[in-house]
Every structure is written in C-alpha cells, then in structure tokens.
Amino acid sequence: xCILKESFLESTVRTFVxxxxxxxxxxxxxxxxxxxxxxxxxxxxxxxxxxxxxxxYRETLSEFSSETENLAYLKWIGQLxxxxxxxxxxxxxxxxxxxxxxxxLEKEPDNAEIMAFLGSAYTIKARDFPMKWVANLTPxxxxxxxxxxxxxxxxxxxxxxxxxxxxxxxxxxxACVNISRPFGQFDKGIKDIEVLxxxxxxxxxxxRYAGIIKDRDFxxxxxxxxxxxxxxxxxxxxxxxxxxxxxxxxxxTPYGKAALRRLNx
Length: 265
Fold this sequence. Notes:
This protein has about 260 residues and is mostly helical.
C-alpha cells in the first residue's frame, strides 16, 4: 500500500471513528435487517442514525487487511469493529474489537483511548450477553456483572492515564450514561459530558486537545449525545437546546438529521 493511500485511509478513519463516535452502549438498532430498511417508518431515531453510519464503517473497514501487523492500522480496525458491533449488536464484531484492543495494549499499555474503548466494549458484551433471560437466573448472570465492572474499571483507568483527552471522556461519558442505573455510573457519565461542554465553550481550558475540541463534527457529536443524556434525566428543555445546537452546526450530517428528527417528534 503506498504512502499516499495510507495517509488517506488514516484521515478517513479518524473522521469516521474518532470524530464520529456514537458508540453508545445502549444505542442502537437490535435488528437492522433488510425488512426494517424497507419500512423506515418503524425505525427509531437511533436506528436511523445507526443505519446511516454502519455502511460507512463497513466500507471503511473493507479498505484494511484484517491480517495487518501495523499497530496504527490495528487501532483503527479495532475501533471500526467496535462501532459495527455496538451499532448492529453483532457480538462477533465486539469480540474482534476486544481481541485487537488487548493486542494493542500489550504493545502500548498506556494508550488511554484504546483502554477506554476496551472498557466500553466490555460493557457492550454485558449488554448483548446471549440468552439474558436465562443468564439472569443462573450463575452466568455473574459473568454479565463481571463484564460491566471490568469495563468500568478500565474506563476509569483510561481517565487516570489522560483525564484531558476528549475522546476518552466521551467514550466513558456515553458508556456510563447508558449503563443500568443500579451500577451508579450515570452521574459520572453526565459529569464527563459536561466537562466536554466546558472545553468546547472555552477551548483554552484544554489547549493540548484544542484541535479535537474545535472540530465541528466532534462538537455536533457531543451536543447530540448531551441531548440524549438530558432526556434520560427528564430535562426536556435542556435536551431540546442541545438538539437545536446540533442541527445548527450542519443539518445535513447524520447527527444533524437525527437532532432534527428528535425536535420534530
């Protein structure tokens, strides 16, 4: 692969993966099959958002060789599998993501972003645990609890590694907002998201990552996810404000369209 193509792919993947995190462990479409595509009226806002992004993630993933040993590419491949597995509830994709993240961390144990992704992936494994109706009544239920606790610990460790990293904050924020309330992580997730809002409002608070904080796609993502979080808090007016701000950035992007659908509901 030539250097030009490598640069293009890295730029493309960072656009789709880092600045387009939607990665909410709770989000997304359980059965995005062709029959549902034929009946869009039955889809929720989150389902439609997932569908719009899944094809992009899958198309980008097809540009990479799954056998690569290039560590930089492995990071992107792992993140793409993570997003695909999260959005489609494909447990095989999440398993691939976990395997890749673990391999990367063997070489880069202090990589906060990959540690955060790994932690979030474990919470998704708990969310999508097979036969939950049986597992909850058997010792297998403890495996689900193990995944959640392991995921929380790894995301917390990622924050300790680099508390100013906006990607790490967003990953943990979204995950914690969507973890079941009995685990007591919701307020932590809200705090992460509100820290991100403070940086967006005043980038000088985080000069190290000003490039990401000022990126319009990243801002739209944070605004949209904040709106969803406020809905979970029953703060409808604050949610509406966030969705309006999301749509104002660019109504033709996936987040802009999703925000407009939320406002029209």
